[in-house]
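This part of the workshop introduces the protein records we will be handling. A record pairs a protein's sequence with a compact description of its fold. As an example, a complete record with its sequence and its structure tokens follows.

_____
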Amino acid sequence: MFKSRRMLVAFVVVPLSVFGLCCALLLFFTLRVVGTHRSPELLSPASYAPDFSLPDHTGRVHRYADYKGRPIVLAFLNQKSPVFDAALQSLKATMPDFDKTGAKTFAISDAPQTDLNHIHDQQQLNYPILRDDGLKLARRYGAVNDSESELRNVCVVIDETSRVVISIPVSDAHVDQLGFQLMNMAACCLNPASTPLVVRAGERIDPFSLPDAMTSTPVKLETTTHSAQVATVIEFLSAKCPCSLGYDARIESLFERYQAKGIRFIAINSSFDETAKDEQDHLRHAGLKFPVLMDKGNVIADQMKAKVTPEFFVVDRKLIIRYHGRLDDSRDPASVTTNSLQIALDELLAGKPVAEPEGHSIGCAIMRVQNSKL
């Protein structure tokens, strides 16, 4: 595909529970894509996982710190190996299932950014590719064959405390089932009782004022007694996150249908690496007709404990949270079965309490400043 040897790593963030060790053992004994021996150069169990901060194919920087507290599965894949394309496509095909469990996937390569864009577009991947220049991160994970300076295919499981649970080589056998097998591992380890949602419904948020991305004019959110305004939808979005961008048309459609019913819509961009110019370009392309505000230093995101993009809040006239979570249950519009945000709005307009006021948000981590409270 490319003349020089370039390597790729796929990172899958999965919401493991206290059963993480059992699930890692399950991966070891049941995944037929896994080899039968463990290289001594790989990270040892119980060792701390190395940190990372890498740009993706668009230049946006992703930091491990933004995902700490969440277990991670790393599938290191050599671009020159025969499993490369099949593994990418297997992970891509399994993304809807990963999304339902809150999983997050990255790919990592040392190829130039232009080549990463080519790979991403050609494969039509639904997760970002990060650039590991010189395979520095791969070396820290012990996944590089130093004698040939090339990446070995390896799976690594990291728990929520950032410790390596297992690090094992991947064979060529049945690699087309890699995503499916990883999904099975994630599902068996998911313990809803130990991974509760952050319940926000019923909390009151503080009033705030932020500048409009297009005009710099301050836009306020405050309590009101105006009977025509039933509630306000607040979306935390991104001008760069593929997950967030994929919801632009859906939230705009919701705005068009509900603004006349007394539902106000505002969006907030809290990512430190996105400028007002980035957001202006995004808005011109997306055609969103409600205000998008710039949250410098992610102050409001911290106050509201927003974590990902897109993430939605609905507050009433007194700024009490009535709904918090996702817009719907699938990044693919054709696969949506539950329109969670729309259901919540309909219940509020009918004067009813929201039956399901919390839902897992699916998206990219908000890129916070280093001294963020979260």
